[in-house]
Every structure is written in structure tokens, then in C-alpha cells.
Specification:
- This protein is α+β, with helices and mostly antiparallel strands and 372 residues long.
- The chain is 41% helix and 17% strand.
- 12% of the residues are buried.
Length: 372
């Protein structure tokens, strides 16, 4: 799993009760020092290459509610031994509020209270999330009775004030899990990885096959007779098909839109692709203090902070807004506004996707518009 997901390190631990394991994976951009672990947790110190150091604890709450107090005692002991910025998260097997559970019977108040008291003791706060509200479900969603289908928010990320100050722009994303099937976007990540591997293997084969077919065609062409005419024709068609595939490959790599059809000018496409890669590569960025930064984490943070700042409001006074807006002539009519405010339908989405350039930049799932 570590290799398939392209992580450089991994540690696993058998978890309590149900089958399976808890695991911690990391890339080579950080150093991980394992402190301790058990069936319910993995505790580690994370050191990034820009001299940031913090603590991460992955938790798995005991599914047996009668033993849940031992789990909270473990969390408190871990909290007593920490002095670094602390991020803690995982499957807690518990909710903090009644609205984090839908369907089934109500949650016992003492279970919720024990969870809250443990977080207060450790000075941990929920970091919120983006995406689906619930992270776990069970039962039949098609049943007319809500009691047979239960949804709960059991997974969460928690941080102390030191960690929130160190990473003020951190965001927790909930993957969409439905009826215990993997989200299509997660499947596409595997698909994109497999396609990249397939592409490298197939394109290497394509170049070798063109070379072999070219040699065979030239041999037949130099001694062409009626006896080998069919072989000549077959090799010519095969070579033409292979060169067409090569041209299409480099056309997609170069993302060139103005050259729709041309001869087998693959060197041109190769130069375009190489030039585009050099042009788009970001070697470094200046941060807000005019310090040049070249490491990946620093570049990502600078870019994220820049767009966060320009799209954030400075909270001007309403009178200042009115003064500016009253001098502007409206450009959007009521009819236009109604059209813009209406709900999107499937035809709108399809029209937008099919108007995109098929082989331009990839989306967040690693696929171009042509894939869809």
C-alpha cells in the first residue's frame, strides 16, 4: 500500500476489536520519530525540512463503550507528556454533539460528556472540516425507517493552540464514503497512477515498435517484388498507425491547440512539450518578508497565503461600500440575475465539460477533460 500510494515511510499497528490496522504514512519531505504506539494509537514527532517540529498522534477509539474511559485516560496521559504543537486525530468512535448522529437511537450523554472532558483536559479543539458531514454509516439507506440507517461523524482532527498557530491555514477534508464504497475521486487517484505507469511502458514499447517496423519496411522496400508486395503494404499500414499514435501522444503532451492536423512532425511536438515544462516549472517564490524560498512546502504555503489574502475581505464599513456602489451603473439586469441565480442542471455541467479543451491541464483528480 505504501508503494502504491507513493509514500516513503509507514508504520502500522493492529487496532482494537474489529479487524484491520491503524497506520501512519509519510513522504520524504518530513522526518518521523516514533515515540510509542498501541492498539489504540500511534504517537510520533514530525520534523519538516524547514525546521518545523510538531507532534502527531493517530487515535482509534475502543468500539466497546464499556472500555471507552480507558481510551480517554490514554489521551489524557499523552496530553500530559506533550510540550510541542500537537495534532491529534483519527477514528474516535464517538461524537461531540447530538447533531453529529442521524438515525438510530440517541447517544448516551455520559459518553459525549467524557469525550468533551478529555479534549478540554488536553486543550484540544476540533479543526472542523470540508466535505460530507458524516464519516461513517451503516444499514439500508433505502429503508423507509430511519432507525435502520445510521450516519455519524466519528473521525475528526484535533489541535492545540500551538499547532493552530503554526498552521493557521490548515484544512481537513472528508472523503465521500457511501455504503462503504470508495469515493470515485479516490479511485481516480489509483487510476491516474496506473495510467501513468501504463503510459511509460506503452510509449517505450511504441518507440521500439516504430524502430523495428521501420527497419523491416526499409528492407522490403529496397527489394520490392510482386511476391512481397502484400508484406510491404501491411508494414506500411502498421508503420502509419504507429506514427499516428506517436503524433497524438506528443500533441497531447505539448497541449498545442492551433496545429490541428499536420505531418508526422513529432520532433516539433516534443520541443513544445519540453519548452512548456521549463516555462511552467516554479523554482522558487518570494514570501511576504521578501525572503526567497525554494522548498516545496514553502512554495505551496506562499502560494496558498497569497490567494487567501487577495480573496479575503478587509471588512470595510458599510457606508464606504455604499459610497462606491452608488457611483456604479448596474450592468446586470433582473432577467440576467435570475438566469445567474438559477440552479445548475445536468445539461449545464455537460455543456461546460464538453466546451473544455480536451487535453489541457489536468484536474485535481489527475485526469484531463478528454477522460470524461
Amino acid at each position: 500500500m505504501r508503494v502504491k500510494l507513493r509514500f516513503s515511510g509507514m508504520v502500522t499497528w493492529e487496532k482494537e476489536g474489529r479487524s484491520g490496522r491503524i497506520c501512519l504514512l509519510w513522504t520524504d519531505s518530513v522526518d518521523v520519530h516514533l515515540l510509542n504506539g498501541s492498539k489504540g494509537h500511534i504517537d510520533a514527532i514530525i520534523s519538516s525540512h524547514n525546521n518545523l517540529k510538531w507532534r502527531f498522534t493517530e487515535m482509534y477509539g475502543n468500539p466497546d463503550t464499556t472500555l471507552r474511559t480507558h481510551f480517554w485516560d490514554l489521551l489524557k496521559r499523552l496530553g500530559d507528556s506533550q510540550s510541542l504543537p500537537w495534532l491529534c486525530g483519527g477514528d474516535m468512535n464517538e461524537i461531540l454533539f447530538d447533531h453529529e448522529k442521524r438515525g438510530g437511537g440517541g447517544r448516551a450523554l455520559y459518553l459525549i460528556r467524557n469525550f468533551r472532558e478529555a479534549l478540554e483536559y488536553c486543550n484540544l479543539a476540533d479543526l472542523g472540516f470540508r466535505g460530507p458531514k458524516f464519516t461513517w454509516c451503516r444499514g439500508n439507506s433505502n429503508s423507509p425507517s430511519n432507525s435502520t440507517f445510521v450516519q455519524e461523524r466519528l473521525d475528526r482532527m484535533l489541535g492545540n493552540s500551538g499547532w493552530s498557530d503554526l498552521f493557521p491555514n490548515s484544512i481537513v477534508h472528508h472523503l465521500r464514503l457511501w455504503a462503504r464504497t470508495i469515493d470515485p475521486c479516490f479511485k481516480l487517484k489509483y487510476c491516474a497512477t496506473d495510467l501513468l505507469k501504463w503510459n511509460l511502458e506503452k510509449f517505450r514499447w511504441l518507440r521500439e515498435e516504430i524502430k523495428k517496423k521501420t527497419i523491416a519496411f526499409n528492407q522490403v522496400d529496397r527489394a520490392l517484388f510482386s511476391s512481397n508486395w502484400q508484406t510491404h503494404q501491411r508494414l506500411e499500414r502498421a508503420l502509419e498507425a504507429l506514427k499516428y499514435k506517436e503524433e497524438r501522444y506528443w500533441q497531447q503532451q505539448s497541449k498545442d491547440l492551433w496545429l490541428k492536423n499536420g505531418d508526422r512532425n513529432s520532433k516539433f511536438f516534443h520541443r513544445k512539450a519540453s519548452a512548456r515544462k521549463v516555462k511552467n516549472f516554479i523554482t522558487g517564490l518570494l514570501n511576504s518578508n521578501d525572503v526567497w524560498c525554494e522548498d516545496k512546502e514553502g512554495i505551496a504555503y506562499i502560494a496558498e497565503s497569497y490567494f487567501h489574502n487577495i480573496f479575503s475581505s478587509s471588512s470595510p464599513h458599510s457606508s464606504d461600500l455604499d459610497m462606491v456602489l452608488n457611483t456604479m451603473e448596474p450592468k446586470v439586469s433582473l432577467e440576467m440575475n435570475e438566469q445567474l441565480d438559477r440552479r445548475f442542471v445536468a445539461e449545464d455541467v455537460k455543456a461546460a465539460v464538453f466546451h473544455m479543451a480536451p487535453s489541457k491541464s489536468l484536474g485535481a483528480d489527475g485526469m484531463s477533460a478528454l477522460f470524461y
